[in-house]
Amino acid sequence: MAALLEIRDLGVEFRTPAGVVKAVNGVSFDVGRGEVVALVGESGSGKSVTALSVLQLIAQPPGRIAGGRVLFEGCDLLALDEAAIRHVRGRRIAMVFQEPMTSLNPVLSIGRQMTEALRLHLGLSAAAARQRAVALLDQVGIAEPQRRLRQYPHQLSGGMRQRVMIAMALSCEPELIIADEPTTALDVTIQAQILEIMQDLCRRLGVALLIITHNLGIVARYADRVNVMYAGRIVESGPAAALYRRPAHPYTVGLLNSVPRLDRPRGRPLEPIPGSPPDLHLLPAGCAFAPRCSLAEAPCRIAPPPLRALGDGQASACFEVERLLAGVPA
């Protein structure tokens, strides 16, 4: 069966006073129907830019989609004009943005913002749109939905605003939801509630979910498959369980070692990845992770390694992957 979303060799550039930045460089991955796929990496790795490119939300200028295809049910979204892509945004592909306080309009009521998309995309009357908005707020666990519709974003807590964003994303019954760091700035209890709501709704409604995050705890619990990004490229991909059991790229190993885990001895210190992410204006000729990698050898500094299949759906862009999997020290 063909994937719902197919991203092929996507490239996105930004023109800056210091030169051209290749924020996304040859990224390819799929999202199947009803599947939860995670895009993981440090800040600046290209995750959000990849997500925004799907719906042509890159500001042009200074940004530019330099190449590649984004196929949604076989249709290349990058080839659509503005009028055509508007029918896809919100209706067939919805997005939950990183910070709801800046995504919701502060001068419009919650009800006005929720019913607008329903009336535009589904052609509902004002009364029917309001009735559906009440049902959606109730569905995402917001008490007194009638009253909340009359309120404004600043009158809601961070967790409630994010629930409103999820309700808005689900309002037109999309086939795919893109969630860009949906739990940023929320405490861990609210994070868990938000993610449980999203997973439950996607499972029940058959909606695919592309979740962008740097939180590997989220990935372990909620994702079916994972794509790890570094410096604009995917450096590892595969089923979430396999990636945690047998990470196949030094960067993935570094991410896993730098977060607290219950299966480690008490008191064992975390192991941060040495160095800093590369300057995208001055990427090295070889593997972008080589300056921070203890396994790097001469070939790693000559050309970037291709993403190659390892079996069982896992792939890694590392020349030294065999040494890594064998546990050979640097």
Mean pLDDT: 87
Order of helices and strands: EEEHEEHEHHHHHEHEHEEHHEEH
Low-pLDDT sequence parts: none
Q: What global shape is seen?
A: globular
Look at the helices and sheets and give the structural class. Answer: alpha/beta
Tally the beta strands: 12
Notes on the structure:
The structure is a single chain. By secondary structure, the protein is an alpha/beta fold. It has a domain of 107 residues. 33% of the residues lie in helices and 23% in strands. The chain is built from twelve helices and twelve strands. The chain has an eight-stranded mixed sheet, with helices on both faces. Helix 4 crosses helix 5 and helix 7 runs parallel beside helix 8. It is globular and about 65 Å long. GO terms for molecular function: ATP binding; ATP hydrolysis activity. Its main location: membrane. It comes from Tistlia consotensis USBA 355.
Secondary-structure map with pairings?
Blueprint (H helix, E strand, L loop, with lengths): L4 E12 L2 E13 L4 E5 L6 H8 L8 E10 L2 E2 L5 H7 L4 E4 L3 H4 L6 H13 L3 H14 L5 H6 L7 H13 L5 E5 L7 H18 L2 E6 L2 H7 L2 E6 L2 E7 H6 L4 H8 L50 E4 L2 E3 L4 H6 L4
Parallel strand pairs: 3-8, 3-9, 6-7, 7-8
Antiparallel strand pairs: 1-2, 1-4, 4-5, 9-10, 10-12, 11-12
